[in-house]
């Protein structure tokens, strides 16, 4: 498995991933909020996650995607 | 500030666990996910600083995972990132028995990258991106 860093979308977009190498990819990160909802590290994180899932599921490699909730300090 | 700040309060009560799990389920469905990974760094500990901490974090975490397991579809995978020692107990020591977590987690990811260092010979940490 590998983590996909939500802050690496510009340098390494999902379409560049060779999904044949991965059974699982964890998107990092969604962040627990004070109201027990989920927040994101950047504005484009939801779009990036959606893109990652579309490419992963469409790759024909059986690659699956988890959303990783939490983390250390975040990217910023 | 740590992004794991609100885990403790999110898993603290029946009500917060239901709300947190329900919000995660919404994301699971919205994004057509295959699973959820919980990367709480760390239950019962400060982590990078600024975490809310409760002595019963690990016990509450287990209760939360049981709720999450119930609300997600049976084929959803639930995993957790873990240190090289078990989750912390109420007195701050590693739990001696974490067998209950076996029923709610499909697997864990050991954060071996937390264990590193160098003295005379530089140590190179390589993170594979593909």
Shape of chain B: globular
CATH homologous superfamily placement of chain B: Glycosidases
* Total individual domains of chain A: 1
Distance between the termini of chain A: 24 Å
Straight-line distance between termini of chain B: 29 Å
Q: Domains counted in the coordinates of chain B: how many?
A: 1
User: What's the overall average pLDDT of chain B, rounded?
Assistant: 87
The total strand number of chain A stands at 4
The level 1 CATH classification of chain B is Alpha Beta
Helix and strand run of chain B? HHEHEE
CATH architecture of chain B: Alpha-Beta Barrel
What is the number of strand segments of chain B? 3
Rg of chain A, please?
Answer: 12 Å
β content of chain B, as a range?
Answer: 5-15%
Q: What string, H for helix and E for strand, traces the elements of chain A in order?
A: EEEHE
How many helices of chain A? The count is 1
Q: Strand sequence of the main sheet of chain B, in spatial order? A: 1-2-3
Strand residue percentage of chain A: 25-35%
The major β-sheet of chain A equals: 4 strands, mixed
Helix content of chain B: 25-40%
Q: Average pLDDT of chain A, to the nearest integer?
A: 93
Describe the structure.
The complex is a heterodimer of chains A (76) and B (130). In chain A, 18% of the residues lie in helices and 32% in strands. In chain A, strands 1, 2, 3 and 4 form a four-stranded mixed beta sheet that branches. With 76 residues, chain A is α/β, with parallel strands linked by helices. Chain A is built from one helix and four strands. Chain A has one helix at residues 45-58; strands at 2-5, 24-32, 38-40, 64-71. The longest helix of chain A is centred in the last third of the chain and has 14 residues, at 45-58. Chain A starts with a strand and ends in a 5-residue tail after the last strand. Chain A has one domain (2-69). In chain A, strand 2 (24-32) and strand 3 (38-40) form a beta hairpin. The model of chain B has no long low-confidence stretch (mean pLDDT 87). In chain B, helix 2 (14-30) crosses helix 3 (57-71). Chain B has a three-stranded parallel beta sheet with strand order 1-2-3, with no helix packed on it. Chain B has a single domain (7-114), classed as Glycosidases (TIM Barrel). The relative contact order of chain B is 0.17. Chain B starts with 6 loop residues before the first helix and ends in a 20-residue tail after the last strand. Chain B is an alpha/beta fold and 130 residues long. The longest helix of chain B has 17 residues, at 14-30. In chain B, helix 3 links the parallel strand 1 and strand 2 (77-82). Chain A binds chain B through residues 1-2, 8, 12, 17-18, 21, 24, 26, 28-38, 41, 46, 49-50, 53, 57, 64-74, and chain B through 1-7, 9-10, 16, 19-20, 23-24, 27-28, 31-41, 47-48, 77, 79, 81, 109, 128-130.
